[in-house]
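Hi V.,

Quick status before I head out on leave. The structure for the redesign project is tokenized and pasted below; the design run finished overnight.
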């Protein structure tokens, strides 16, 4: 599907997992893309195939500092997303979420540009409501190990809504649930990448806790489609809107599927459950269906097969 005429589009965090797929799709649509990244968790490698495209520009920049460029739309994805990475320098994580949001909102205000925030299901914390609708305010520990990310993202949402109310800015907030696919960081500690890499190396497959905790996994192509549909909505659509795949699996089920798809001889081993690890998570995507006419189409087995192929290729390089 094509969304409107050619635009200049800024993607912060564009050299990361989701950002690189977004840059690719926007270029396919004929847009000019400015990819801004400080390469904390992203890599030039993720966008190397785009560097020859004259509509693509890669800029090293940290969004905690002001940015003066001229664009029509902004997708704000800059932020480490996996617990291992966002807990590495938690103060910087909060700065990236909060100062990064302020700078991108200031930029959007000056340019009268649309700005979309990549928020997260972590704003619901360890939820008492299941599945989580957008009206649910969440149950978040403000002083725990996940707080730098969870509260940073919550504060960013607050800023987006205040710029909307106070400055009449065209903002869009999507709450992304667990997403996986090619170009995930192999060492980011997230369950999909961990399990696949362990299986391919023949190492023990680590399940934290008893593996009965659940997550709902969305394939990256589906997610990017939803983000672009959200950006294409009129000014009346602000969000927040959950985007993710409502198919819920226990971590144990995921491990069994990875073992089947890789044909590994690896054994499952148990490791302690990290603090504040949510028991259950699944998006209620009623609003996304109604407002965006969107729902995910890639089943877990198909998406995992493509992801396994990516990691196999990566490990051969
Ligand atoms: P990622 O780590 O691959 O990408 C984040 C990118 O942001 C990286 O390229 C990193 O180098 C860059 N970055 C980090 N701090 C920066 C800074 N201060 N200035 C400039 N660039 C910076 O992670 P991802 O999975 O692609 O996540 C992208 C966005 O989507 C994040 O905002 C994340 O919170 C959100 N999100 C992702 C998921 C998921 O399951 N992948 C779920 C919920 C929300
Ligand atoms: N900003 C930016 N690029 C711009 C305009 C603003 O990075 O093109 C930053 C600016 O440095 C400021 C932030 O965005 O820190 C918020 O800008 P806003 O105009 O909302 O607030 P103010 O400058 O009045 O504090
Ligand atoms: N997990 C696991 N083994 C791993 C990595 C993660 O069992 O090697 C678990 C983790 O404890 C959590 C779930 O898988 O319950 C999803 O973890 P991830 O870090 O991918 O995402 P998040 O907790 O942010 O949803």
């Amino acid at each position: 599907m094509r969304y409107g005429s050619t635009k200049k589009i800024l993607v912060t965090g564009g050299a990361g997992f989701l950002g690189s797929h977004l840059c690719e799709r926007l270029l396919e649509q004929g847009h000019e893309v400015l990819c801004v990244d400080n390469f904390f968790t992203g890599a030039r490698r993720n966008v190397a195939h785009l560097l020859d495209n004259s509509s693509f520009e890669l800029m090293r920049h940290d969004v905690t500092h002001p940015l003066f460029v001229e664009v029509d739309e902004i997708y704000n994805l800059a932020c480490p997303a996996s617990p291992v990475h966002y807990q590495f320098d938690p103060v910087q994580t909060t700065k990236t979420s909060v100062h990064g949001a302020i700078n991108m909102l200031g930029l959007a205000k000056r340019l009268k540009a649309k700005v979309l925030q990549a928020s997260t299901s972590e704003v619901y914390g360890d939820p008492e409501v299941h599945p989580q609708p957008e009206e649910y305010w969440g149950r978040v520990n403000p002083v725990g190990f996940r707080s730098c990310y969870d509260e940073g993202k919550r504060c960013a949402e607050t800023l987006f809504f205040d710029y909307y109310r106070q400055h009449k800015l065209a903002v869009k907030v999507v709450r992304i649930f667990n997403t996986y696919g090619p170009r995930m960081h192999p060492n980011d500690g997230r369950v999909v990448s961990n399990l696949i890499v362990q299986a391919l190396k023949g190492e023990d497959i680590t399940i934290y806790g008893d593996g009965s905790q659940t997550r709902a996994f969305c394939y990256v192509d589906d997610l990017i489609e939803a983000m672009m549909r959200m950006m294409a909505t009129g000014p009346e659509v602000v969000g927040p809107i959950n985007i993710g795949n409502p198919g819920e699996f226990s971590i144990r089920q995921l491990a069994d599927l990875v073992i089947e798809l890789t044909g590994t001889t690896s054994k499952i081993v148990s490791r302690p459950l990290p603090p504040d690890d949510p028991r259950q998570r699944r998006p209620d995507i009623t609003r996304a269906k109604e407002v965006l006419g969107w729902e995910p189409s890639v089943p877990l087995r198909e998406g995992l097969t493509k992801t396994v192929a990516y990691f196999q290729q990566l490990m051969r390089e």
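Above is the designed sequence. Residues 204 and 267 are 5 Å apart (CA to CA).

G. will cover questions while I'm gone.

Best,
W.
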